[in-house]
Design brief:
Helices cover 39% and strands 8% of the residues. The chain has three helices and two strands. The chain has helices at residues 11-27, 38-45, 64-69; strands at 34-36, 55-57. Strands 1-2 form a two-stranded parallel ribbon. Helix 2 links the parallel strand 1 (34-36) and strand 2. The longest helix has 17 residues, at 11-27. It starts with 10 loop residues before the first helix and ends in a 10-residue tail after the last helix.
């Protein structure tokens, strides 16, 4: 999810669109996750929406140990 893409100005509408996409892929028995940054995800879907899917972080980490910190459950913005 990136800010440069076409999204609504409403976080609740965006969160519903994301939920709909997740439901569609799950209905097809496909795995689904989100690739974004915490900042962009919260800006687009709000800080209260946590869809509970895996997340792939866009990060500027320059070492394995710095990247590993982003893999903690407490760092996940999707729940």
């Amino acid at each position: 999810m990136e800010l440069g893409s076409r999204w609504s100005g409403s976080t609740s509408i965006n969160a519903r669109a994301i939920a709909g996409a997740i439901a569609f892929f799950r209905s097809k028995r496909l795995s689904v996750g989100i690739y974004s940054t915490t900042y962009q995800f919260h800006h687009l879907a709000g800080t209260g929406y946590r869809p509970g899917v895996p997340v792939w972080y866009a990060t500027q980490a320059t070492s394995y140990s710095a990247a590993a910190v982003q893999c903690r459950a407490s760092a996940s913005f999707t729940g």
